[in-house]
Design goal:
Number of helices: 14
Radius of gyration: 19 Å
CATH architecture: 3-Layer(aba) Sandwich
Largest sheet: 5 strands, parallel
Distance between the termini: 27 Å
Order of helices and strands: HHEHEHEEHHEHEHHHHEHHH
Helix content: 40-55%
Strand order of the largest sheet: 2-5-1-6-7
CATH class: Alpha Beta
Shape: globular
CATH topology: Rossmann fold
Number of strands: 7
Number of domains: 1
Length: 351
């Protein structure tokens, strides 16, 4: 659940690139590429010591990309990038195969239209390709995304993927931004008991309004370029756009409800953050909630807290800026009241 051209939605890809992606993102090809990667590089990757991985996960439009880059800029973390496409499950093999044809892409604004620029080497939300390939039939249906406990073989394979990404980028720790991980936090902690789970959040009405705006934008972009919509689906980005599927969790809206209303996105906001607040002890002990509004208001204190939780030195956060304020109308009183109640609990946890 997350998104990004050229990079982001495949907007900068040639016809040949698009054909390669269609072939490479077939589940059978992905599975084969991962098997070959593990066979060739797995033992070497597993032998390398690594520190606690960090997983940024919540609801989109909460500053997840900004936090991802803040952590990544420390130089301690390895994360998948668009340089690893279209074989993200074979990052070392693809790096070797594509070395002579390495290309660069000028930094450009991502498809969200939010002023965040990126290039092929920017860390991004590509990890979900792994879960779609290994567990997709267990949690992705035609209408919803389901919470799931990954099978033991999938947990073992995920440990290998993390080690392979660390090897590919020669950095000691792994970093993920993947909002779909909220559906499998137990599996993440089973794979990595020392994992740090970072959950950013914003004012519910403003974050829901941003989600609604992004959904409308993604639908239009996907309608104008069907490859973009397919690309987002291949990456497992179901948060908004033509492939959107709501999570099947208590309080979330049904797939049949209209997505062009603020209540729909407020309900998703409340349901996901309630799920995060109610995690069992083993997961709860690894969670850190980040009030993104407060972080932007007082960056130094907020960044220091994140740095302490992640055991890493971070920059000052001076570049953090509050998101634009949306004028919002039409929210139902009961839906908003429930979201506000969840928000108060989040603020308490964040403090």
């Amino acid at each position: 659940m997350s998104s990004s051209d050229g990079g982001s939605g495949g907007g900068g890809y040639s016809r040949a690139d698009r054909l390669l992606h269609r072939l490479a993102m077939n589940p059978a090809v992905l599975d084969l590429s991962f098997d070959l990667e593990r066979s060739r590089y797995g033992a070497n990757a597993r032998a390398r010591d690594g520190g606690a991985p960090v997983f940024v996960a919540g609801v989109a439009r909460a500053g997840t990309t900004v936090l991802l880059r803040l952590l990544h800029d420390s130089g301690q973390f390895a994360s998948l990038t668009y340089r690893d496409m279209p074989f993200p499950l074979a990052p070392n093999s693809w790096q070797k195969m594509s070395r002579r044809s390495r290309r660069d892409l000028a930094a450009q604004e991502r498809g969200h239209g939010d002023g965040i620029v990126h290039d092929l080497d920017s860390p991004e939300a590509i990890e979900e390709v792994f879960w779609r390939t290994t567990e997709g039939k267990r949690y992705i249906t035609r209408t919803h995304l389901h919470p799931h406990a990954p099978l033991p073989d999938s947990v073992d394979a995920f440990r290998d993927l993390v080690a392979l990404v660390r090897r590919r980028y020669d950095r000691p720790r792994y970093l993920s931004k993947n909002n779909a991980n909220v559906l499998r936090l137990g599996g993440i902690v089973a794979a990595f008991p020392d994992a740090v789970l970072v959950h950013p959040f914003r004012d519910p009405l403003q974050q829901a309004a941003s989600l609604l705006n992004q959904h409308r934008r993604a639908v239009e972009l996907g309608r104008a370029d069907p490859f973009r919509a397919s690309y987002m689906r291949w990456l497992g980005h179901y948060e908004f756009g033509r492939s959107h599927r709501p999570p099947l969790i208590p309080g979330a809206p049904a797939a049949s409800e209209p997505t062009d209303r603020i209540d729909y996105w407020l309900a998703i906001w409340g349901a996901v953050y309630r799920l995060l607040l109610d995690q069992p002890g083993a997961v709860g002990a690894r969670q850190i909630f980040v009030d993104y509004d407060a972080l932007c208001a007082k960056p130094a204190a907020g960044v220091a807290r994140i740095a302490a939780a992640a055991a890493v030195q971070l920059g000052s956060g001076d570049g953090l800026r509050p998101p634009p304020v949306h004028a919002v109308e039409g929210a139902s009183g009961d839906v908003l009241a429930e979201a506000r109640a969840v928000h108060r609990q989040l603020v308490t946890r964040a403090n």
